């Protein structure tokens, strides 16, 4: 692919350059390695880069200074920063200065290949050959290509929070007291989770705990939505993600100790706190995912799980469930323009049977948080609370799918019809859309 713009690797560790040259060459990429910034700019003057993998520690100049110069000289070029020593502060600074992403060493090659593919497609004004890992598919990316879904620029500004938000509670899975801090974040940075040890995890489908195993088979298995990076996990993010989705918050930094707290198993507290704090418009325009044509995953029968997406000028989710007593068959349609997410969906709580919870606790899979943060069913009856709506169960299923869909990274425009879905099925559905526009 000598006629295509190359990927530049800038690192003073020769072993890193050699390893990445071999890996990317095997994938068919044109690779140029540089031991320092001086060599980078000399070579880039002759052949501009499509993407730069840039170490934050260089012998001749600080990597963040190199990043600033790259943004000035090559504004359309994607830059992924790399470091084995920097923390969350350096990562956030790099993203603010225009980096596409930030990776910690030692590098996970599957993750790196995915990040490179995404960065090229996101920043690729030029005709760049794109390589998708996992199935080795190769496509040419040109903006404006149609499919079942497209990523387009909207006419609304990006939003972030006006100030910090703090919420304490009990983890549903761990049963431990935990807390979360939501903070404003600059435009074009997205939703980013940060662990107490400084590990940054993008709120994105590719960060799912079971993403690599479920990617090809489309068989995601999950009782909740868990994100992972370099061994660090953020658990039960779905209710918070649903709230950010419906409040159209594009950029936020979320600091948390392993698990998002849910005081009562719903998203009601997140809504109240965001309404109290407020949001602020940012300078850049937001983007959205638009469903272009009808498609289905699963079998469209009442006895089977399925999700259908259709073109629609707005956002609507219709959900049907049918479980044993006291739930039975329930249906509900949430339309963002016609209904209030804060009052009609967010207060709906998680639910499970007393027997399932007891078995999971004996196996060490969940903590005591379940007992206070779920609607608990035993012998065909709700035994621990009064329902907030007669159909609270199906409303909570809508809450879950709204949150899981925001792992696409952008708000969705379309009509969704779902039957008996779970988190794993939601993740597979999101992957189908992601494959269409990425």
Please identify the top-level CATH class of the largest domain.
Alpha Beta
Question: Helix- and strand-based class?
Answer: alpha/beta
Name the shape in a single word. Answer: elongated
Separation of the first and last Cα atoms:
21 Å
Oligomer: single chain
Describe the sheet with the most strands. 7 strands, mixed
Radius of gyration: 22 Å
Helix content: 25-40%
Number of strands: 24
Output the CATH homologous superfamily of the largest domain. lpxc deacetylase, domain 2
CATH fold call of the largest domain: lpxc deacetylase, domain 1
Q: What's the helix count?
A: 13
Question: If you had to describe this structure to a student in words, what would you say it looks like?
Answer:
The chain has helices at residues 14-26, 37-46, 63-73, 88-96, 109-123, 211-215, 238-246, 268-277, 341-344, 354-362, 369-372, 392-405, 423-437; strands spanning 7-10, 31-34, 51-55, 78-83, 101-104, 128-131, 138-141, 149-161, 165-170, 177-184, 191-194, 200-202, 227-229, 232-234, 252-256, 279-291, 295-298, 306-310, 315-323, 328-335, 351-353, 375-378, 381-382, 412-419. Strands 8, 16, 17, 18, 19, 20 and 24 form a 7-stranded mixed beta sheet that branches. The chain contains 13 helices and 24 strands. The chain folds into 3 domains: 7-142, Rossmann fold (3-Layer(aba) Sandwich); 154-289, lpxc deacetylase, domain 1 (Ribosomal Protein S5, domain 2); 290-437, lpxc deacetylase, domain 1 (2-Layer Sandwich), CATH 3.30.1700. It is α/β, with parallel strands linked by helices.
